[in-house]
Amino acid sequence: MVSLQFGSAFAKRLFEETGPAGATLLRLIIAATLLCLLSRPAPRLLKAHWRLLLPYGAVFTVMQFAFYEATSRLPLGVVVTLEFSGPLLLAALTSRRALDRLWVAVAAVGLLVLGGTRGMDDPVGLAASLLTGAALTGYILLGARVGRAVPGGSGLALGLTVAAVLALPTAPALGLPSPGVLLEPGVLGAALAVAVLTTVVPFSLEFAALRRMPPRVFAVLSTVEPVIAALVGLTLLGERLSLAQWAAVLCVVAAAVGTARRSTSPKETAPTETPPTETSPEDTPAPSDRTPSR
To answer: 144 or 22, which is more confident?
Structure first.
């Protein structure tokens, strides 16, 4: 989470040269290339698991374009807080505990307060933030299935490759600078740093976590990210949140802590991972009975 938010702050500075769409395109292409070089996925895995990898890559593409568009208009901490509206809603719907739903209601109050604070009058930024939240929910659900079906880090590498391919026709429609700008050494160097900080490091770790714990537990633990984003935005970008905005962010974090404390029952604990084997779609075991969320 720390790596992701530092990289996101760095990406906001890159927007001046590339715009949000250009930064997203470079990030996806570079990250997909690096992960393919590191994990060297077998091409046949894409053919065997395309029904999972295609929607996974599509959700990833939507999430990245929407997130960068939102952060180009709103403070980083605000966007990340709004982003968690989708995962929190899914956590409420999949939980059988009344107290969990109460905590999610606390988070919902925080999100409503946040939406009504000063500086939140950009409808495109708000819509992009909420779209990021919806895509993040899909990423978590699909990521858990891809992580169990595709061995090692091949699932993430192939999913990002699909996302990069889908981004090629999408980015021009959202506005790109000239190819010469995107290929400048300084821009490519900055995009490389962004790709490593925001994709290669954090998503590799998240992908590994999703293979080892129930998605709902992963979701509520990850909800402390808005505070990290707000602090990074303050220290690196000078984005000062109002008291009401900080109160809203802390409501979301309080809900995450409250839910996480009750999310470690034996029934929800992820089983010990066994080394994955490469399987065909017919041999792939059905997803476990873990409660899906975030």
So the answer is: 22
